[in-house]
Amino acid sequence: MVIGYTTGVFDLFHHGHVNLLRNARSLCDKLIVGVTVDELVSYKAKRAVIPFENRMDVVRACRYVDLVVAQDSMDKLLAFEKFKFDLVFVGDDWQGTERWTVIDQKFANIGVRVIYLPYTESVSSTLVNETLEKLRRGDSK
Prior knowledge:
5-stranded parallel beta sheet; Rossmann fold; 6 helices; alpha/beta
């Protein structure tokens, strides 16, 4: 059985999230998804609109997800120790970054493959949030 793992904030759940989860699930037998706890969301200098437990419920309802867990640390190797996955999925917007180059090498050393999945360019939680802000202000553009 091939176990896959991915993480995200999954705030304002949208079709980009669905694309990531669908693509990840197609490459493994079991998909574990870590939803970032509210306290860690600040690593992106942001605050989640949807509370953690509600984001967990939304991700849990997605048919591509087999298990939802709290991501309470940014350390992916700690997650590996807990869940013993074979594949870790991340958006290709992270590929080649200093952080993920290091993580990729660490995982290669223990036999875990990092798979970079296509980022959905047309949408992001930030874009959805900005659009909502503009609509609330009555901006037409």
